[in-house]
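User: Hi! I'm working on a homework problem where we have to compare a predicted structure to a textbook description. Could you give me the structure for the chain below?
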Amino acid sequence: MNKNGIGDPDNKELYALLHVSPEASTEEIRKAYRQWAQVYHPDKYQSPHMKDIATENFQRVCEAYEILTDENRRIIYDIYGMEGLTSGLELGPKLSKVEEIKEELERLKRLREQEKVAARTHSTGSILANLSWPSFLNGDGLMRGMGMASEFQSQVSKNTALVIGGNLAVNSNAGGGAATAVLRHQISPVSSMELMGSIGLQSLIGAQTSCQLSVHSSATMGVTLSLRDGSMNLSNTWSRQLSETATGNIHLSLGPDSSIGVGWRMKKQKRSAAGEIKIGTSSFGATAHYTHHFSSKSHGRVSGMVGSNGLAFEIGGGRKISEFSTVRMLYSIGLQGLIWRFELHRSGQKVIIPVLLTNVLSPAFAVGAFLLPVSLYFSLKKLVLKPYYLRREKRVALENSEKTRNQVQESMAKAKKAQELLKNVAERKKNRQLEMTGLVILKAAYGSRKSISNFHKSEETQDELALQIIDVTIPLTFLVTDSGELKLHAGVKKSGIMGFCDPCPGEPKQLHVEYAYGSKKYKVVVDDCDELLIPQESHRV
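Assistant: Happy to help. Predicted structure tokens:
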């Protein structure tokens, strides 16, 4: 039923409850229901307390079974979740036939496609402010020049995009600008073309086409015609994937300023690098840069340039200060002098401020200009920024915890009650596996990533994170098959499994499992919606 690809993990709790895959057949759901009904049927228990617990969970199992074995209701649940079932689909018309539901499903697909198109409609821009300390000391003012550029892209249709941009630049008493329009069209999955026009300092028209030659190779050809002097420029670029993380390219340009260039680019999870050598009729040069990500929030960068246009070496780094914003500080030394460059990147917008410190290269001044901002940054980070962000994280976590405390306590209590009825069967399964040296769950915990990473820390740390973890050793032991295997399905949040709950709503969660198999110990940690299949030799401690 869920093979349409619509739906998110929030709409899969009933699948987790019955311990079946979102793609399970009706027969598989019936089989799972019968197994759970044997455990939670109220008639099996004499104690009023246990009978009440069994009744509550038996009702949950029956509700999940009734929904997932009804073709109409299952499709609605996969699309809208429980809200769609309880509200009579207030988000759309009341649907009663399978054909109508499938038609609504197709409508949602088209709507999501339109949302993706809308997401590709965005603007980018940059502001450049050139500052000069020597000019300021000479009384000529601090500002040497300024530039602005902006670009807006709109998806005209599924395969066609229109890009409109412009730029302005002022340097001393001179200035200029240009406006550009580009029409991009995807001809096929492996080829595209562009038509462009520009007026201003560089008035020209041009066309470009790209083609995927093979799985690992592509080529781009372009031609531009200057409207000022009638000169023409032809360009060709050939790219090839050298490995899973590296690509190489050759670029050839024929025209008033002909050139040939060879480039290379590598990008891995924590580091990236690129380099290029370019030789032309009037210039030559080589550039290279390397970026290393120390964490998800900070990175360092080293780059160099040598050629007929100058010589420069640059070092610096950046830090992510919010979800969409990054700041960078770079130090450059070269023939132009010593330069500090400050950058602010937010979404597609950026502000760049280069500050020329001196035109004269002095070893003492160069060392001081490098050490001063580095020392200032690490001092601010240690004394101001880090304490501030830690306080803010704790405050936000405390606020979220207070808001959800009652909800979490109720969920925890329900999960513990559900585990009470699983305990006896889980104990029998554990003893059976011990006899045959099979799969034995030693310890299992489900909770926030932070709490799972501190799972083996001191008791004091455990007390602080107690509300963000639930012990799920019993329910996992219950789910172990007679053949000594355990499988949790992908795409399903584990908080919906019987005996589990969500101990920290809104936070990313993980499952930590320690188990023994064949007298050997194993350990594994998986994300909330990832598949878990044990035993696996790769989990061995």
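For your comparison, note the following. The chain has eleven helices and 23 strands. The first strand starts at residue 122 and ends at 132. Good luck with the assignment!
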